[in-house]
C-alpha cells in the first residue's frame, strides 16, 4: 500500500504511508502528541478499542471511530461534534450478522471495488485469500464478514469526507483539538483510581499529614 500511495504523483504531495516498526510506549510518547487524527475502528460491541484512544484524545487528537469501548465515553465527554463517528451500533450487530447469513446483505459497490483492487495484485503479489475470504460468503468459520467491514465501509467513507471538510477550516480543527483535551479529564488515572477505590474496593482516601 505504501509503495502504491507514495509513488502516485497525484497523491504523494499530500499523503504518505509510513509503517513504524516495533511500536511501543517510547514510540507512542513521540507519535501520539504529534497526531491530529487517529482511527479506532473496532466493530461496535467487541470492546476491542483498548485505551490508546484516550491517550490520543488527551493530547488533542481528534478521533474517527465506531461506538465501541472507550470511544463511546470519549464521544460523550468531548462532544459529538468533536468526534467523527461511523459504523453500526452494538445493538444492530446481531441482526446484521443474521441478515448476512440469510443472504440479505447487499455490499456497497465501492467496497466491492476495493476488494477487487486488492485481488488484482495492485498492492503486491501476496496471498490475499485469507483476508478476502473473511469478507465474503454468508457464514462459516473465518467467513461471512463477521466484523461487518462491508456494512461499516460506506459510513467510514462518509466520515472521512467530513474529516476532509473539517480539516480545511483551520480554526474549526484547532477548536476541536482543544475541546478533545478539555473534555478528557474523566480519563485521568487520578479519577479512575478514585472511582475504583470507592465502587470496587470499598475504601476511602486517607489524608497524608
TrEMBL record:
Reaction(s) catalysed (UniProt annotation): [(1->4)-alpha-D-glucosyl](n) + phosphate = [(1->4)-alpha-D-glucosyl](n-1) + alpha-D-glucose 1-phosphate
Presence of the UniProt keyword Glycosyltransferase in the record: yes
* Keyword line: Carbohydrate metabolism, Glycosyltransferase, Phosphoprotein, Pyridoxal phosphate, Transferase
Q: Which GO terms describe its biological process?
A: glycogen catabolic process
What's the Enzyme Commission number for this chain? 2.4.1.1
* Stated role: Allosteric enzyme that catalyzes the rate-limiting step in glycogen catabolism, the phosphorolytic cleavage of glycogen to produce glucose-1-phosphate, and plays a central role in maintaining cellular and organismal glucose homeostasis.
Please give the name of this protein: Alpha-1,4 glucan phosphorylase
Amino acid at each position: 500500500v505504501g509503495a502504491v500511495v507514495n509513488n502516485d504523483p497525484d497523491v504523494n504531495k499530500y499523503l504518505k504511508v509510513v509503517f513504524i516498526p516495533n511500536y511501543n510506549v517510547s514510540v507512542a510518547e513521540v507519535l501520539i502528541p504529534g497526531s491530529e487524527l487517529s482511527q479506532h475502528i473496532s466493530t461496535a460491541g467487541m470492546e476491542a478499542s483498548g485505551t490508546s484512544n484516550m491517550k490520543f484524545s488527551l493530547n488533542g487528537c481528534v478521533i474517527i471511530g465506531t461506538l465501541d469501548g472507550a470511544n463511546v465515553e470519549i464521544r460523550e465527554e468531548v462532544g459529538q461534534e468533536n468526534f467523527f463517528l461511523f459504523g453500526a451500533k452494538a445493538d444492530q450487530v446481531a441482526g446484521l450478522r443474521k441478515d448476512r447469513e440469510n443472504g440479505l446483505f447487499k455490499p456497497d459497490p465501492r467496497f466491492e471495488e476495493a476488494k477487487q483492487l486488492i485481488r488484482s495484485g495492485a498492492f503486491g503479489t501476496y496471498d490475499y485469500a485469507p483476508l478476502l475470504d473473511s469478507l465474503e460468503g454468508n457464514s462459516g468459520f473465518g467467513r461471512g464478514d463477521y466484523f461487518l467491514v462491508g456494512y461499516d465501509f460506506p459510513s467510514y467513507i462518509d466520515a472521512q469526507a467530513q474529516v476532509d471538510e473539517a480539516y480545511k477550516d483551520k480554526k474549526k480543527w484547532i477548536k476541536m483539538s482543544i475541546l478533545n483535551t478539555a473534555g478528557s479529564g474523566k480519563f485521568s488515572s487520578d479519577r479512575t483510581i478514585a472511582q475504583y477505590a470507592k465502587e470496587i474496593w470499598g475504601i476511602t482516601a486517607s489524608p497524608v499529614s
